[in-house]
C-alpha cells in the first residue's frame, strides 16, 4: 500500500473541501481507510474510518453532520468530504490503511500517507 493524500488548501470558514487518499499500489480495496488530523502542538487525532466494503463507517462527534467519508474501490481511493469548515478544523490531515474492521486508534493502522494541509480562516 502506498497512500497519497491530496485536496487540502486554504479556505474561509463555511467552505468545503474534499480530501482524497489514493493507493498507487492498487490494493486499498482490501483495507479499511481512516483519516486523522494533527494541529500544531497537538496529538494526531482520529477523524473517521470506512471499512473496505464502503458500508461500515464511523465519524467522530465533532465532525458528524459536517464531514462524510466514502470510497471508490475501482479507483483505490478513500475520500473525506468536509463541509461547513471551521477554523478549529485547521490541521494536517493524514490518511491511513488498516486490515481491521473500522479502526479508531493510530496503532491499528499499518500504512500512512504523507498528509495534506487544511487551513480554515475566520
Short synopsis of the structure:
The protein is an all-beta fold and 122 residues long.
What are the main properties of this structure?
122 residues, mainly beta, seven-stranded mixed beta sheet, four-stranded antiparallel beta sheet
Task: Reconstruct the topology from this structure.
Layout lengths: L2 E4 L2 E4 L4 E7 L8 E7 L6 E6 L6 E3 L7 E6 L4 E6 L8 E8 L12 E2 L3 E6 L1
Parallel strand pairs: 2-11
Antiparallel strand pairs: 1-3, 3-8, 4-5, 4-9, 5-6, 7-8, 9-10, 9-11
Description:
The mean pLDDT is 96. The protein is an all-beta fold and 122 residues long. It has no helices and eleven strands. Helices cover 0% and strands 48% of the residues. The relative contact order is 0.32.
Characterize the main sheet: 7 strands, mixed
**Poorly predicted ranges (pLDDT <50, ≥5 residues)?**
none
Number of strands: 11
- What coarse outline follows from CA principal-axis ratios? globular
Please bin the fraction of helical residues: under 10%
The number of helices is 0
Task: Please write the string of helix (H) and strand (E) elements.
Answer: EEEEEEEEEEE
Q: Would you tell me the overall average pLDDT?
A: 96
Task: Please give the radius of gyration in angstroms.
Answer: 13 Å
Structural class: mainly beta
N/C terminus separation = 37 Å
| Proportion of residues in extended strands | over 45%
Amino acid at each position: 500500500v502506498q497512500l497519497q493524500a491530496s485536496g487540502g488548501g486554504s479556505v474561509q470558514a463555511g467552505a468545503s473541501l474534499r480530501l482524497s487518499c489514493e493507493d498507487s499500489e492498487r490494493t486499498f480495496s482490501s483495507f479499511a481507510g481512516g483519516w486523522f488530523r494533527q494541529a500544531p502542538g497537538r496529538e494526531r487525532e482520529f477523524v473517521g474510518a470506512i471499512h473496505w466494503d464502503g458500508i461500515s463507517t464511523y465519524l467522530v462527534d465533532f465532525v458528524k453532520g459536517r464531514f462524510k467519508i466514502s470510497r471508490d474501490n475501482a479507483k483505490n481511493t478513500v475520500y473525506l468530504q468536509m463541509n461547513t469548515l471551521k477554523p478549529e478544523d485547521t490541521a494536517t490531515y493524514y490518511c491511513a490503511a488498516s486490515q481491521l474492521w473500522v479502526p479508531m486508534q493510530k496503532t491499528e493502522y499499518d500504512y500512512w500517507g504523507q498528509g495534506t494541509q487544511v487551513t480554515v480562516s475566520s
